[in-house]
Amino acid sequence: MSVSKVEILREMEYAVTHIRERVLDEKARGHKVIGCLPILIPEELVHASGAFPVGIWGAERLPIVRAAEYYPPYACSVVQSITELAIAGAYDGLDGVLISCLCDTLKCVTQSFPLTCPSVKPIFVKHPQNHRLEGAVTYFIRELEGVRAQLETLTGRQITEEALCQSIEIYNENRKEMIAFARLLAEKPGLLTCRERHTVIKARYFMRKEEHTRLMRELNGMLRASTAPSFEGIKVYVSGVMLEPSHILDVMDELGYTIVGDELAHESRQFNHLVPEALSQLERLARQVQTYEGEAFLYDPRKTRGERVARAAKEAGADAVLFALMKFCDTDEYDLPWVRCAAQEADLPFLHLELEQTMQSAEPLRTRLQAFAEQLTHTC
Amino acid sequence: MEAHYIGIDIGSTATKLAALSGERALLGTTVVPFGTGTQADQLALETFYRNSRLSPSDCVRTIATGYGRLIFRGADAQVSEISCHAKGLHHFLPQARTIIDVGGQDLKAIQINDRGSVQQFVMNDKCAAGTGRFLEVMSRVMGLEVAELGEYDARATGVETISNTCTVFAESEVISKLSAGVDIANLVAGIHDSVARKITGLTLRMGILPEVALTGGGALNTGLVRALERNLKCGLLLPSLPQFTGAVGAALFALEGRL
Amino acid sequence: MDPCTTDTKTLLKQLTAQYYDDLNHAHERGQKVVWTNGLFPQEFFEAMDIQVAYPENLAATLGAKKGVMPYLEKCEALGYSSDLCSYTRIGLGYIESFDSDILNLPRPDMICNCTNICGLCVKWFECTAKRLDVPYILIDTPYQTEYGPTENDVDYIVSQFQELIRQLELLCGRPFNYKKFRQVLAISRRVAKSWKRATDYVQHSPSPLDGFNLFNYMFLAVVARGKSSTADFYDRLSEEMEEYLREHKSQFKGEQKHRIMWEGIACWPHLAQNYKCLKANDMIVVGGMYPVEWCVDYDQDDVRSLARAYAARPPIGSLTRQTDIRARIMEETRCDGALYHVNRSCKILTFLQAGLRRGIYERNHKPFATFDGDQTDPTTFSPAQFETRVQALRENMEAAKAERGGP
């Protein structure tokens, strides 16, 4: 491993583990900081306002105590941990947050978040479910105009067409590098550990995209130049919302798994779709929603997610499909049988793991992952 | 001097050991009523060798399985309990293709092929419903020992259904029924039915291929067996040594040397 | 049947039978069958003589008549989590066989769904449409994050109506009947007003109307909002209530010591037990969301008003608006307390309930109690817990009254 690659990974690891420090640093420089909750947020608007966008997807292994004031135990752990952190004042330093309404639980978060963080300005992003219709694009453009206006008020800075265009280009560049990164790891399985792969992707949430792109260009160059290791383990394609808590990645690495592709909402679904061209920058952002197909959080009358997962898994050379089911995520719970069915039809072994971000121990997952590995490698 | 292979299954409440000869013959078994984190693994080995003509120096290989397999230092390797139960059960009942393991703390359903290889599996290790724990709680409420449940079930004239799947709510339901003077044998049958429904639900998620075998502590409960056969709508094969399926499977892995 | 003289009990039975008869004979009469959710703009279907089936209603009926377990089990066997809403689990289990002893629905030619009850139904109907291989059309009514629907929301909904019309024309093979549509708008507004008038009788003290009966009466407001016979029925109910008032009678056969708001969907499998327990504690249900929710009235007979009315349904309302509505209901119906159904299946309501309880309590300081239950999954309810909680609520309300020096 070259020193440079270690340094890049270290920098990304630092970004992921020192979020608070980064936020304080940005504020010290006079920048506004805007939190971006799940699932899909037009971060380019935040970027164009000069503010620093920071991802808010909860925290791992956080004991949930006070969130019970708002949510019963059967709300997903991402929302539980976000709420717990909010009540603890972790988000008080933020100037604003963007919250989407893409699932019923998030809809409730649009109502509970302002109560848990009264000092932080909430801005709601209302994606049109009927996204294929022109009326939906018109609608979303107007919604984004509202988001833009609120960001301008918050930051005191006008978001011009040029600034937004530039931000979209920066984000698209980052997306292209990430798509290339994912492809490289599929072509050369085992080149990075599961944890390293995850860290590289997660770092996007805690760095300015241009910084991240700079590092990605170097990293991708190094990965391209590297020879593929001789990999004897299990190549999986991961489906779901999030593959956390991250100690599951260490278990996967120990057991000889590598990730050759994913369609996790937290990971690849953030960058697989480039913002397309259109007449105005807001229209470009609005039309990006139309590029999603088989997206779990958007109306899909033909329900193509299963087939897409199977196809993508095969293209990535996966041995199996791993469905990382976030416990209590209704959206994915409805899709699980369909993704399993499609995987089986494509002769891909399928393992479904139930995860909660708050899990303290990875042991129950270890048993399942180990049994699955034994199932795949045992030639009795 | 007899070369042998050891499989040790370190569960949460008991540790089981099995020894096989090179020709796959069962040379002996031991169970100690202590589980992981209590030195039970060492105790099991000592107890076994004290009561056996075999000598520790003739042990070719040891495989550990079960909850405590990662902590035990005396094994050459560790294999998941899913693979071990599959292999062990297949050894005793080669015609089985679906295995249901009702343990004290968890519940597993495993599908195997004609060579005993795992094809798919499902587990419940979070919720007490469908496990021995549920039966423990309910039997305590009724003032019975878990070991008596089969005998009471045999006297049932009907099944007093318990509708709640949550252990806490079910406990309250059982108490209400007891106060209402419901026949205790029928209530026991109802508790068995509740556990059987949960097990059936989990197993159907995976799919059932005949023949179906039942193992784990639950297999010793004739009432539960009856309720399960009724819910699954098929007969169940029962191994003669249900507690040792995992240990035997581990010993077989030790013998085969591949995992 | 003459709605003016027949009693409402008989009338409801007749109208219910008529509804199912029309539905079951739809295909042989050359009509199309659409499956949809309860608050979908039915006006579009009425205009095209399409028969409409409501899988939520199927679930509720099967729940009430103890016929859900086979479908819940079937759904679980398919690999769906038991965490999911029980209406949807019953629906997904049911479509595997269409073989209930209690109630059956004809197969749909199309599925239509509006997001004004929740977003989870989008996934439910996706699965259903794929399984049954039928087209699935969506009317998306955005979540009201601030207070009510915005003009942008209304524009978006109207644009979706145009696509819906096009799809219905394709389905039926004939142009959309705008003339009938306008007639249906007028009828639907009449239904809304007649429903409101009838359900407002709970505001009387003592109330001639037993609010718990609304779980039954609402059936026509759900499935036949565009028919004059529905308006006639609710008008008849109002007349009956007037008679009761004159004769100092009530549907509630007991002492109306405590007037309560029942918050949430009914526990369909446990209606009898719930009612018996409430009655034993001298509690009459007078407050609840159903009157407001099913009163789909629009300002004018035009499509924008229609869109706004459907967008403004309470389940997708902001917490502030939902609190306002319930506080107003408790005031208008003069509730002494509230009973909250913490419904395992309904996340969009249950996840706001903690904030709702606090907000309402801050305004009126009325005693309240919660209980764990589910709208149709019979295994998620404990009669012992319900009885304990209701008793505690009664004791609270008695103590509050004693403190005020009241009866």
Describe the protein.
The complex is a heterotrimer of chains A (380), B (259) and C (407). Chain A has a domain at 25-159: 3-Layer(aba) Sandwich (Rossmann fold), CATH 3.40.50. Helix content of chain A is 49%, strand content 12%. Chain A has helices at 3-17, 19-28, 43-48, 77-87, 104-116, 134-155, 161-187, 194-202, 209-225, 247-254, 281-288, 305-315, 330-345, 363-377, and strands at 33-36, 52-55, 96-100, 121-125, 234-240, 257-264, 320-326, 350-355. In chain A, helix 13 links the parallel strand 7 (320-326) and strand 8. The longest helix of chain A is centred in the middle third of the chain and has 27 residues, at 161-187. The radius of gyration of chain A is 20 Å and the shape is globular. Chain B is built from eight helices and ten strands. In chain B, the strands form two sheets. Chain B has a five-stranded mixed sheet. In chain B, strands 8-7-6-9-10 form a five-stranded mixed sheet. With 259 residues, chain B is α/β, with parallel strands linked by helices. The relative contact order of chain B is 0.19. In chain B, helix 3 (132-142) packs parallel to helix 5 (167-179) and helix 6 packs across helix 7. Chain B has two domains: 1-93 and 241-259, Nucleotidyltransferase, domain 5 (2-Layer Sandwich), CATH 3.30.420.40; 95-238, ATPase, nucleotide binding domain (Nucleotidyltransferase, domain 5). With 407 residues, chain C is α/β, with parallel strands linked by helices. Chain C folds into two domains: 8-180, Rossmann fold (3-Layer(aba) Sandwich); 190-404, 3-Layer(aba) Sandwich (Rossmann fold). Chain C is 52% helix and 10% strand. Chain C has helices at residues 8-24, 43-47, 55-64, 69-77, 86-94, 120-132, 151-172, 178-199, 214-223, 228-246, 271-280, 290-293, 303-311, 319-332, 347-364, 383-404; strands spanning 33-35, 51-53, 110-114, 136-139, 258-263, 283-287, 337-343, 368-373. Chain C has a four-stranded parallel sheet, with helices on both faces. In chain C, strand 5, helix 11 and strand 6 form a beta-alpha-beta unit. The longest helix of chain C has 22 residues, at 151-172. The B-C interface holds B 163-166, 169, 172-173, 175-176, 197, 200-201, 204-205 and C 73, 76-79, 82, 378-385.
